Amino acid sequence: MNDSPGPTSRIWFSQRLRLHYVDWGNAEAPPLLLLHGGRDHCRAWDWVAERLRGQWHIVAPDLRGHGDSAWSPDGNYAMAAYLYDLAQLVHQQKLAPLRIIAHSLGGNVALRYAGLYPDAVTKLVSIEGIGRRPRAPGQPAAPGVEERLHAWIDGQRALAGRLPRRYASIEEALARMQAENRHLSPEQARHLTQHGVNQNEDGSFSWKFDNYVRAEPPGDLTDAEIERLWSRIACPTLLVYGRESWASNPAQDGRTRHFRTARVVSVERAGHWVHHDRLDAFLAELAAFL
């Protein structure tokens, strides 16, 4: 990171939740929103924001239950809730029309938003944010509603008894961060850890995200409904994938057929966090696309 001033922390409200975002200044420039993934935080975008802040008005929110945003009191982390929060931020701050770069969970939310409000988004980049690979022919059918609800209730009960893990030091939390993504440089891992933990009263450290964000809600849109939203996206769309990731590439599994203008880019020597693993390669793709 360079020595230029960092972003300013700001607050917006959605469904009575006090949510946090950072604003990188340059308010007269076109808006560019950066949306992080699950169990992550808005400062994960700092390297991207530092390089793009001169051209764009960059806004990076913390999703509910993540970073410095409030935890949902009833553990509501349904996709519809994340979608509403994004819609409220764009509406309240008058950011539309805007460009969006989003990762993983954030990409899933951004794709739905762009399909719901096609006139609001002018360019969209989703890094491994299209969701699970489609069910292949011959695979078992998806669980029925009773199985999904049973699994959700059991999962909620388990999370209710799960206390946030405590690390004796930043170094101990840093080791966990590095184990999660071996591509991270020591500098990247330390930055992500320092912005991703709170210090507890006893001096230990815990991750900022709410454990309830781990639970998968039992009810969501059907595959057909999600595909309909994708088909409504009117802006140029870039779907970015790491060659070493576990995620399924939509150019290979057929899901690109649901998009009007989507182009898929695969990045060598990158896993799920392409924007961390191959920052320069990612920025080169952005420069050509944005």
Residues in helices, as a percent range = 25-40%
Radius of gyration: 19 Å
Tell me the CATH architecture of the domain at 8-131 and 217-289: 3-Layer(aba) Sandwich
The main pleated sheet reads as: 8 strands, mixed
CATH class of the domain at 8-131 and 217-289: Alpha Beta
Q: Per DSSP, what share of the residues sits in E-state strands of 2 or more residues?
A: 15-25%
Q: Tally the beta strands.
A: 10
Spatial shape: globular
Query: What is the fold named in CATH at topology level of the domain at 8-131 and 217-289?
Result: Rossmann fold
Mean pLDDT: 95
Task: Tell me the strand order in the biggest sheet.
Answer: 1-2-4-3-5-6-9-10
Structural class: alpha/beta
Question: Which regions have little confidence, pLDDT < 50, spanning 5+ residues?
Answer: none
Give the end-to-end Cα distance, rounded to a whole number of Å: 23 Å
CATH homology superfamily of the domain at 8-131 and 217-289: Alpha/Beta hydrolase fold, catalytic domain
Tell me the series of helices and strands, N- to C-terminal: EEEHEHEHEHHHEEHEHEHH
- Continuous helix count: 10
What does this structure look like?
With 290 residues, the chain is of the alpha/beta class. The protein has a domain of 197 residues: Rossmann fold, CATH 3.40.50. Helix content is 34%, strand content 19%. Helix 5 crosses helix 6. The radius of gyration is 19 Å and the shape is globular.
Short description:
This protein is of the alpha/beta class. Helix content is 34%, strand content 19%.
